Structures are given as C-alpha cells and as structure tokens.
Amino acid sequence: MTDDVIPAAPIVERLARYERADQDEILGDGADPFGVADAGLTWLPKEEHVGIRLDGRLVAHTGLLRIPLSIGGTRRDVMGVGGVAVAPDLRGRGLARLVVTAAVDHARTLGPDHGLLFCRPPLVPLYERLGWHEVKEEVHVEQPAGPVVMPLRTMWTPLKEGEPWPSGEVRLLSLPM
Q1: What's the CA gap between 156 and 4, in Å, rounded?
Q2: CA atoms of 93 and 74, how far apart (whole Å)
Q3: Which of 79, 83, 67 is nearest to 17 (CA)?
Q4: How far apart are CA 39 and CA 45, in angstroms?
Q5: 3-class secondary-structure state, position 157
Q6: Tens-digit pLDDT string for the chain (177 aa)
Q7: CA distance 104 to 143
Q8: Number of Cα atoms under 13 Å in the Cβ half of residue 8
Q9: 70-103 burial string, b = 16+ CB within 10 Å, else e?
C-alpha cells in the first residue's frame, strides 16, 4: 500500500453541523490542535463544513466562510477556508487533498473570485501542491483590540478560471477565519 492509498472508501460530505466534539473526534481534545495558539489571534467560526468519513468515523474537515476584505482599497468578498483537519493516524494518505478540494469545489458555487486561507509555514508546500499561492504582501486582520499583521502565511486560490490575485495592500475587514 502506498501513502496515497486509503484503506477504506472515504465518504466526502457536506456537514450540517461541525462542533467541538467533531473536531475532537478528528484531532483529539488537545489545547492547541491546529498549532496556532501562540499567534494570539481570535478566529471566526466557519459557516459551511465539508467532512470525510471512513467506516463511519469523521477523519477530516475543512470549513468555509465568506469574508470581506480590501485589496488595494477595493472591497470584495473571498471564501475563507479554515479549520483544515486530518486525523493524525491517517495523515499522508491524501485526505487533506480530498477534503480541501471538495471544499474549494463547493466554494466555486458561492460567488467570490478567490479562496483565502492562513497556515503555518510548514504547510505552505502542501497547499502549493493543491494549487494555492502565497500572498506576498503583509495581510492585516481585525482583532478585538484593533488590526494586526497576520503572523501566519496567507495563501489564495482562484475560484474562477484564470482569475489573478489583485495587487495592493490586503486587509481583512473581519476577524480571520
């Protein structure tokens, strides 16, 4: 069996709900399951959810949320992608690709031109393999005490064929997703 082969047929589905218990089913109940607590950020919950089940167990998740931002002074909406999670015992088997691709395919039906996500630096190569591109400019995000520069990497993907990323200063007009 290669790393890309999953032992059972995965079931990809839109989830009617996604709660802390679902996250714990995938990642366990650790205090910092995404490894971003030291960034000190307040995050928005996602509104739409895509999951993968293997033998009835929820093993992967990606969330979506439409968020407003400004690029070069022009306001637009993007589909924020976040809460990407794969069960530790099943990593390296293509589940991240499957769940993120399913979420992005759904995001394409929701209207915005771009998807946006934030990730830790070690995850940049994974998202690049999935067709995401790093935003080179600093990205400012809202926080309860006021705007801050996003300390994580910011990545984008086109949701419409050939749609380039606009140039200019990037500012989320909300908390990050």
Answers
A1: 25
A2: 40
A3: 83
A4: 17
A5: strand
A6: 445 555 578 999 999 999 999 999 999 888 787 878 888 999 999 999 999 999 999 999 999 999 999 999 999 999 999 999 999 999 999 999 999 999 999 999 999 999 999 999 999 999 999 999 999 999 999 999 999 999 999 999 999 999 999 999 999 999 999
A7: 26
A8: 12
A9: ebeeeeeebbbbbbbbbbeebeebbbbebbbbbb
Handedness of CA 142, 33, 106, 136 (dihedral sign): positive
Pairing mode, strands 170-172 and 57-71: antiparallel
Q: Is 154 exposed, middle or buried (0-12, 13-18, 19+ CB in 10 A)?
A: buried
Which tokens hold the place of 24? Answer: 């714990």
> What's the pTM?
0.90
For residues 113 and 74, the answer to whether their CB atoms sit within 8 Å is no
